[in-house]
Design a protein that fits this description.
The complex is a heterodimer. Chain A is an alpha+beta fold. Chain A contains 13 helices and twelve strands. Helix content of chain B is 73%, strand content 1%. In chain B, helix 1 packs parallel to helix 10, helix 2 packs antiparallel against helix 8 and helix 5 (80-112) runs antiparallel to helix 12 (267-296). Classes of the chains: A alpha+beta, B mainly alpha. The A-B interface holds A 287, 290-291, 293-294, 296, 402-409, 411-413, 415-417, 419-420, 427, 429, 432-435 and B 8, 10-11, 109, 113-114, 117, 121-122, 125-126, 129, 132-133, 136, 140, 142-144, 146-148, 261-262, 264-266, 268-269, 271-273, 275-276, 279. Chain A: InterPro entries: Spore_Ger (IPR004995), UPF0353/GerABKA_families (IPR050768).
Chain lengths: 489, 369
Amino acid sequence: MDVVFRPFKIGGKTKAALIYIDGLANIEEIDASVLIPLMKENNAKENENTDQLIPVYHILEQKLTVSKVEKVQTITACIEHISDGNPVLLIDQQSEGFALGLSNWEKRSIEEPTGESVIRGPREGFTESLGTNLSLLRRKIRSPQLKMKSMKIGEYTQTEVVISYIEGIVDQALIREVESRLNRIKVDGILETSYIEEFIEDNPYSPFPQVLDTERPDIVVASLLEGRVAILQDGTPFALIVPVSFYSLLQSSEDYYQRFLISTVIRWLRYIFLLISLLLPSLYVAILTFHQEMIPTTLLISIAASREMIPFPALVEALLMEVVFEALREAGLRLPKQAGAAVSIVGALVIGQAAVQAGLASSPLIMVVALTGIASFTIPRYTTGIALRMLRFPMILLAGTLGLLGIMLGLLMILTHMATLRSFGVPYLSPMAPMQVREMKDVLIRAPWWKLNTRPRLTRTDNIQRQGSDQKPDPDYGNDKTSKGKGGS
Amino acid sequence: MIEKGKISAMQMGIMMYPTITATAILLVPAITARYAKQDMWLSPFWASLIGFLTVYIAVQLHHLYPQKTLIEYSEDILGKFLGKAVGFIFLFFYLHANGIIIREYGEFVVGNFLSHTPLVVVMGSMILVCSFAVRSGVEVIGRLAEVIVPVVIILILANIILLIPDMKVENMFPIMEKGIMPSLMGAIIPQGWFTEFLLIAFLLPYVDDRNKGKKWGMISVTAVMLTLSLINIAVLFVLGGITSRFLYPAFSAVRYVSIADFLEHIEAIVMALWVAGVFVKIAVFYYALVLGTAQWLNLSDYRPITFPIGFLLLLFAVWSAPNLIELIHFLGSSSPFYRISIQTGIPLILLFIAKWRRKTNNQKLTQQG
């Protein structure tokens, strides 16, 4: 039994009991600030009126050296507090109990998030403890406008979920929508925010994530400052952010920490490699099957030479190797770190090299597969990258049947699907479609901070100014600005 | 209203751009060159006049019946029976016109790239992809156009820039050797394409910034005019006097692109990206047809009839011509008159009747009052 019932007498007279769960409550604190002061009640002063019961307020005000005390009236509330780790103090003849804020359970310390590492930027990540996570947010946003709304989800797990937003920036309708979608969830329990994600997303049948998940507090804070809403859950380091567009899923927090020119180039690199990760194997199949004339002659000869011994058509060859690559990636991911290295050696050296020598695949294809793999890892969000990686397979099939036309039709299908998607009312392809020229500063390029004067337009249209304009650094600042001439005059 | 989505006037303008250019750059340059010779670059300017007129008519009708599409206000203007009849003419025309577009697309792809693939597969796959966009409504087609059109424009400009080394400016001279007539003759065929701007009559009710509808319609006509003229110039500079002998001069010109012995034979990529433009074109026609049919039949939703009409479109694409030669003959001879009379003639008559009825109604009102 992990629930501890500790009966004792306050001052040797009044009967009382302390109930807590072993391992969730801080036992040293209970001894020091509850049991010792209460049981040693019978000092000289108190002996005068020995028959009287000790008034509750007296205990509260003078004896309980605990900062967080909450009165509980019902048994359900008692159970809730006990399972949260807060010991409950019950006193004879009293209709109220006291829940003491002395919970203390084992938790992981704040570490660098392994899934989203950065070269420059804060290195702290969320942990499994909701309290710690909220404190991380509070430390970054000191304004009282940062609001946290708490609710419980899960019939049995009673997991605490917090909706966080900044009042004044966020659209109130969005908050209501998030709340109503969360309130609709009726399940036994939630273990990870992905449960919530599946219940609240707009199109459950889409391969694309319509919610951003992150374990980085700085990403959450940046999103809150843009007027988005964060959903945090106890027991997982992953917070959800809504609404998002496709472009925000292609961004890394480091885009904003690097110099803006570098970030712009990196963003474009990412867009190009996004297309490569989706299209390269299918382009290989289409060109080799239908459009050989596009390849320069010398390259064509060398490809043909290396494919001479291959018994399969390009389509089968590409599908085979892509599946092997996906299996290798999955195996490397799930295995312990030491074995993971072995898998990558087996994959890279043995399969790649041996497949070519055994005449199962041509070396250009191995290169295509490897390049596609690298390309898919340039996408900073795992969920986005995996969606594109899986869409690669139907694209290869289309390329094998209709060539470049098939690829185009497949792309048009994907585009049509993306154009229909919405994330909490925000079109998925915005700001590209519907086009908002002003928003392009954070999509086509990463404009310098002194140019990012407006917030992204999500659902609301007012209060879009985020900072003062005209903050471009200039050596002339501090001097008389108005006398600054144009064009060297 | 059947359609709940809203588009912006700019989206409408962007949607109309590939709706005209996508097929106008296929067969039209050759037909234009046959009449206009070295003045073929002038023809789009004359042809665009009817485009401006059509946009004007559509916008005027829209002002008289702001919430309604062409099919709905034909009934208001002409009465129930005649209105339904005119609506049927429009719908049948769009069915036929879209069938021809799909056939042009199919013939082009099969003739140049996928010679062993059955025509029906090429056309059917496209109709299927379009039907998903049409089912999703006008908003989605608008967004798709916004993504696709910049790519198409960049593609056209990039190709023209890559062709600069092969261009001979002398091909242009002598300008207007035989006066203005050849270029006017050359403008007759492209006119048929410019009348397709009537499609904005199906989109205008769903434009949220209504007063900008006319502006963006006109911008779109201008953009199409400039694009077609630019393509005609590029084709003329590259191919010269033999332009009219090619089936698809613009794509034949692309074959000349050869940079550093590496960037050559890019016509398959050009085709693939052009397919995206055709996709928007077919989707817009298809959407107008589906929406119009639903309104003509007083349905409460247009989605259920998308796939049946898609199937009908495939049949019309097959039926529209026995072969490519017949198709070119039709497009180069009677089609402009057919298109102009239905897409500009009938709406013009509708506009006159509507204005006249308004006037007589007002007179009646003033007489009574």
